[in-house]
Amino acid sequence: MTRVTRAYRSTLTSLDILLNALDRLEQQGKLPESEDLDSAITGAAIAVGLGCHHFDDLRAEIEKRSAKVVPMRRNA
């Protein structure tokens, strides 16, 4: 796996962990309604090229792209 692929996969994993944490907070009623929070998540998604503007879209895009990122074989 190339460094770029590892970094990309790591970024997708980090965003997925963040979304899961936000889901848990929301279920517990502890997630504040905040445009700043929405803007931060959207900004992070756009920064890594996902271009999503809603949590559900972001989660779907993370799952789709994670499935496509496969280790590259090295030439022997």
Describe the protein:
- This protein is mostly helical.
- It has one domain.
- Helices cover 68% and strands 0% of the residues.
- It contains three helices and no strands.
- The chain has helices at residues 3-27, 35-47, 55-68.
- The chain is elongated.
- Mean pLDDT is 69; it is low at 71-76.
How much of the sequence lies in strands comes to under 5%
Distance between the termini: 14 Å
How much is the average pLDDT?
69
Q: Helical proportion?
A: 55-70%
Question: Topology as H/E string?
Answer: HHH
List the total number of helices: 3
Number of strands: 0
Which consecutive residue ranges, at least 5 long each, have pLDDT under 50? 71-76
Count of the domains: 1
Descriptive keywords:
76 residues; 3 helices; elongated; disordered C terminus; mainly alpha
Short description:
The chain is mainly α and 76 residues long. It has helices at 3-27, 35-47, 55-68. It has one domain.
Write the topology of this structure.
Elements: H1 3-27, H2 35-47, H3 55-68
Helix pairs in contact: 1-3
